[in-house]
């Protein structure tokens, strides 16, 4: 498996780009949620299963927002290109209620002219570097960027949650921003795809799991305390919620896809 990305990636709209080429069949691997939206390109044979182990149909180009973890099995000579976008992009592209679209791989052909996507799909496959992929995306989709990247009411709150590493409460959001908790709840359901409480937990988990992956902490207890977990069992609950497995299983599991993803910078506001 070749994992192609750029540590110094910078773009006015796109947060990150990853290309994964599979030179051999790979077993099921867990992919967790980061709270961003994505446009993804599938080339070759894959199997995908949601957090309840139900099979998911994979369009050749699809958009996905925040949701639960899912598992992917890749076959030899397949390629996966992932284009990470701001959280608000899913709602801007589809105008769907984001929470009702969670865990769905939404066919981008329903929202962009097929002639554009057909040319993009076949051209981008030949791009072997992040720079080339970016140039191809800009060439075919640039006219959509302004609408897809339009800030929503939730955008500033989402960015604030990232900046705080998820170390805050929903009540703190209503104190800092001019919205009541019920308004924030409705806003997140429509635009973000998650309750504000779950999104805060998700962001916090993504920060702490990267520190766990680096293994640079002195004591595990100090790490979970720094991220406001009450104790080990409290952290274990988030592990099972966002990765579907125990901490022990995670440490013993063979998942190069997840390990490679966790090496990338997480907060990209």
UniProtKB/TrEMBL annotation:
PROSITE patterns: HTH_ARAC_FAMILY_2 (PS01124). Residues 152-253 form the HTH araC/xylS-type domain. It holds the Pfam family HTH_18. It comes from the Bacteria. It comes from Psychroflexus sediminis. This is AraC-type DNA-binding protein. Keywords: DNA-binding. GO terms for molecular function: DNA-binding transcription factor activity; sequence-specific DNA binding. InterPro entries: HTH_AraC (IPR018060).
């Amino acid at each position: 498996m070749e994992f192609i990305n750029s540590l110094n990636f910078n773009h006015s709209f796109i947060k990150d780009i990853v290309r994964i080429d599979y030179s051999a069949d790979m077993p099921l691997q867990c992919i967790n949620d980061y709270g961003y939206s994505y446009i993804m390109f599938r080339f070759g044979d894959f199997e995908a299963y949601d957090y309840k182990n139900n099979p998911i149909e994979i369009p050749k180009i699809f958009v996905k927002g925040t949701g639960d973890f899912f598992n992917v099995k890749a076959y030899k000579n397949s390629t996966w290109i992932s284009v990470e976008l701001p959280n608000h992009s899913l709602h801007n592209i589809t105008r769907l209620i984001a929470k009702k679209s969670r865990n769905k791989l939404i066919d981008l052909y329903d929202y962009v002219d097929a002639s554009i996507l057909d040319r993009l799909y076949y051209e981008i496959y030949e791009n072997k570097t992040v720079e080339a992929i970016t140039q191809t995306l800009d060439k075919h989709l640039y006219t959509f960027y302004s609408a897809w990247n339009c800030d929503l009411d939730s955008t500033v709150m989402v960015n604030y949650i990232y900046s705080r590493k998820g170390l805050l409460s929903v009540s703190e959001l209503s104190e800092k921003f001019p919205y009541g908790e019920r308004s924030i709840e409705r806003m997140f359901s429509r635009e973000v795809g998650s309750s504000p409480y779950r999104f805060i937990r998700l962001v916090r988990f993504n920060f702490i799991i990267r520190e766990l992956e680096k293994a640079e902490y002195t004591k595990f207890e100090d790490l979970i305390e720094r991220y406001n977990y009450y104790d080990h069992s409290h952290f274990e609950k988030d592990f099972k919620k966002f990765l579907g497995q125990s901490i022990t299983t995670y440490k013993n599991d063979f998942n190069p896809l997840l390990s490679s993803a966790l090496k990338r910078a997480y907060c990209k506001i």
